[in-house]
Amino acid sequence: MDRTGAIEALKTDPAAVSVRRSLEVYYGDPARDAAMDAFYAQFVRPGDLVFDIGAHVGDRVGSFRRLGARVVAVEPQPPCTRALRAIYGSDDGVTVVEAVCAEAAGRVAFNVNSANPTISTASTDFIRAADGAAGWEGERWDARIEVGSVTLDDLVAHHGVPAFVKIDVEGFEDAVLAGLSRPVPALSFEFTTIGREVARRCLRRATALGFHAFNLALGDTMALASPQWMSEARMAAHLRSLPYEVNSGDVYCRSARRPR
User: Which of 32, 61, 212, 236 has the greatest number of beta carbons closer than 10 A?
Assistant: First the structure.
């Protein structure tokens, strides 16, 4: 079965009901796919290795593969990893790792939002910040599972040094970066306006790892918001100044290791 067939089969599979909405949102929009590919092409080249940390149901995995990269997709939620394996299981260029990416290898508690698994998280601070916050009304993390954890250093040791790392883990991004001890050419991490201090810690860690230039994309726009890359201090100030209603986005970090 090809990927399109696998996705359509999952949409009608009772066992995949928790991820059906994600499949409908993230797959089947050619214009969105084209915009995503054009955006990530500035970070990813054919033959590259990419780590997708918080892969969910794999729409970014699909983009990285269309760009010719090999992908290690890390995702802790069993319904999501089942979907990833159904969609990409026959693709030798995709490796699925069912785990949380964290500061240390071991076991961690993971909080599941059954109605909205996109925002399931290993961060209890994120859940506290969302409690009662505007735009987050009604969100419930109604289950907790114990899952294995790996570090970015573990993934490098097993798979090689990635050209790009995408991190989207709902307030746990700083813990992910704490598990990386060597520079990579580029990475992104999600930020939210209910968790700006997490982004600040990520910026400090990225700078310690050798990143010197920063930009951001707001929401799901697939476009850099600034025509110029910023210093850490300017990016930190910019994140502080964003209106609360922005809600979320991704910070992009670039090193000098790989001129484009």
Answer: 61
